[in-house]
Amino acid sequence: MSRPPFVPQLVYFEPKALEYPLGQQLKEKFEKMDLEIKYTTSHNQIRNLPGDNDFQKYRVAKSTLVVGIRKTLKFDTSKPSAEYAIPFATGCMGHCHYCYLQTTMGSKPYIRTYVNVDEILDAADKYMEERAPEFTRFEAACTSDIVGIDHLTHTLKRAIEHFGKSEYGKLRFVTKFHHVDHLLDAEHNGKTRFRFSINADYVIKNFEPGTSSLADRLQAAGKVARAGYPLGFIVAPIYLHEGWEDGYYHMFERLDAELPEEAKKDITFEFIQHRFTKPAKRVIEKNYPMTKLELDESARRYKWGKYGIGKYIYQKEEEEDIKSHLYSYMEKFFPNAKLEYFT
């Protein structure tokens, strides 16, 4: 059974969001869907979410959509494969146990979508002008899984077509959802790299509840390839588990079987090993008390990070083992692919 597209249980509007056409359209859409609608002064101030305890409130928040205005139009510099993060949404309906958004979003795990899309795209145009004639790449999924809500908002579709018409702009994003049909006819002109986060079945089944299955993601990648988009795949987090070598081999094998030959000429991969911080471990154990995620600090090596927070990463020999296996699978099935980084 495929996962149905996300439908929020509860929707909040900032009153000013209704001054924008998209705000009005969403309000009408949600009224027709008979969803509970409330109002808030700011998308950063959602209080009194229903629930008797933190555990329940967290789950309600993850199914709450807040429709607001993005006031800050100064874009963060992105890493490591785009110049800027472009903010169309914040938050995600997935329940990935290991996700870094759990610590960065802290007490605001609800999903936010911004309706001042023209202003955001105008700001992007100014960044492009400053860097012309170099290309400027924008990452639309730094703090959200934008595909997960785009069947409701179509913001991403507008952005794809906007960058498709631009001279020096490129767009990229990544998703764990397969609800891509409305994006297949977008006039992307090859300027958008559509990336999927993929993993061994074991990891998706145990640590990525609320997201699409590997089979559905791969099938969606095939559709996206046939629609002419450049494709990319993030394999993350690469996680050592019993039979991991076979698990990742089968993932590559199934991806190879799903993609048309033409698409394999221009594919990027990003490999990210599992890691965690002490604050992340505390949040994960609070939000997912039954998780099977291995978070034993003594089994890892400690690596100093920026901002004074170190990470627990795999031991050097484990890292080399991961590297040699995944590199060999990529070279076997996708000899023309480009590996953007391994971290």
- What structural class results from the helix and strand content? alpha/beta
Radius of gyration: 20 Å
Tally the helices. Answer: 11
Strand content: 15-25%
Largest sheet: 7 strands, parallel
Helix content: 25-40%
Q: What's the count of strands?
A: 14
What is the terminal-to-terminal distance? Answer: 34 Å
What integer is the average pLDDT? 94
Instruction: Detail the poorly predicted runs.
Output: none
* SSE succession: EHEHEEEHEHEHHEEHHEHEHEEHE
Spatial sequence of strands, sheet with the most strands: 4-7-8-9-10-11-14
The gross shape turns out to be globular
Report on this model:
The structure is a single chain. It contains 11 helices and 14 strands. It has 343 residues and is of the alpha/beta class. Helix 8 packs parallel to helix 9. It is globular and about 55 Å long.
Short description:
This protein is an alpha/beta fold and 343 residues long.
